[in-house]
């Protein structure tokens, strides 16, 4: 039997084909080839997916969504991650393990789904759902204070409406009280550099202001005023100047025509002053005539308001001419007389022109008196008011201030007041210090500014940098203390310290007001502590590893063994 079996095996071996000469393929090569091809296809699909995302980044608004996710992640606190981890453990442990004990639970999937829900809830309601539940429902159970639902709802609605009103008021674009002359200053800059210092948006706002201030319904009765109505609407500067000359041919006492020629045609401050004096002579005559007819009809009252605007505008610009020509005391007198004669006209912000002139005279007692009147909680603030108040308090201690000495003995009461004033000013407009410290180059200020924005910082620093340099040690104290403001305001867009939260609309308005060759400054973002980044990275990486292990257990097992071998070697 054994011999028979041996003969059968020999016959079978003889019948089978002989192996081909050459190197033999290792066992399992088909599986390895298939795995390699699968990895190649996965990489190819990954590249194709990235290309699709890049090409569809505009329709899908990926940049906006990424910015929203960034804001969400920046607003999270360590207790959020603790609450998120505990919530995932609670869901996976209590619900799935008790109700569905045989179901395989993936902790990473639950974590990612909760994180996506949190991002959506934060984008819609402005706060974390887990933290809201913890504060509103769990804290009362733990012994905290409890509020009724109606009370919390009314408080939240009141807070939202108040924030909306604040944002609307702070997003308003204001006319720059220290704006330059187009012909004598802005156009000369264009001649020298070949760059346009004013944007179309800024000039369009000025055209709207001119139509509001210098026109009325009674203009149709006077041919010269009718021509000036069309002149203020013209976009071409040459057409505006030509229309102003036509108005003067019709009426040699047309004050608005002289104003337009002084602003746009005159190439020197002397010529500007000469034309404004002619406008003042004509404007005073028209103003007295309007006062006599103001009670005849509503149209005559509107004409009086227009003539008042013409008179105040002309006198203010004459004061600015005197300031630029070195006759500072004359400029101060004109401004004081204007503020006494027309106190309701605060829209011109003449007190800011007065503060700058008084700083040039170094009349610090008079400056303090002006600040006492206008640095009031009921009046709108500005960079000029806040930084001038800080400069006055800095002036008393800056000449003897030393960081080394202050670190050894601590700050005195006067130094603390100066530092607090600087922090207050920086919180109102955080862009000013970089211009005062010459960390960023200055440009010509625009005709309109966004309060608390980069445009206001440019306008303030352009005129007030010399006053900070004149006081010994003022810039040194500013350099040592201004960045400390951001340690007091962790999240300025959501919560302020001395002022309302920093409005998010300033950057958009500044990009419209400032020329394209100027890099717009944005709010300095405070860097989060390392613990926040570490916690977020650890939680995210753990969730990703759990998800990959659930989807590809064999590959992750091989990867884990390879990592273990590398670590052992």
Features:
569 residues; 27 helices; 1% strand; disordered N terminus
Report what the structure shows.
The protein contains 27 helices and 2 strands. The protein is mainly alpha-helical and about 575 residues long. The longest helix has 27 residues, at about 30-55. Residues about 1-25 and about 135-170 have low confidence and may be disordered. Helix content is about 70%, strand content about 0%. The protein has a two-stranded antiparallel sheet with strand order 1-2.
Strand-helix topology:
Layout: H1 2-15, H2 29-55, H3 62-74, H4 78-99, H5 107-125, H6 129-141, H7 149-170, E1 173-175, H8 182-193, H9 200-214, H10 223-233, H11 237-250, H12 255-264, H13 269-293, H14 298-324, H15 328-341, H16 350-361, H17 364-374, H18 383-395, H19 403-409, H20 413-428, H21 432-436, E2 448-450, H22 454-470, H23 474-481, H24 485-488, H25 506-513, H26 530-551, H27 553-568
Antiparallel strand pairs: 1-2
Helix pairs in contact: 4-5, 5-26, 10-11, 11-12, 12-13, 13-14, 14-15, 15-16, 16-17, 17-18, 18-20, 26-27
- Low-confidence runs of at least 5 consecutive residues: 1-25, 137-169
- Mean model confidence by pLDDT: 76
The oligomeric state is single chain
Structural class: mainly alpha
Indicate the percent of residues in helices. Answer: 55-70%
Number of strands: 2
Net shape: globular
Strand content: under 5%
Number of helices: 27
Q: Strand order across the biggest sheet?
A: 1-2
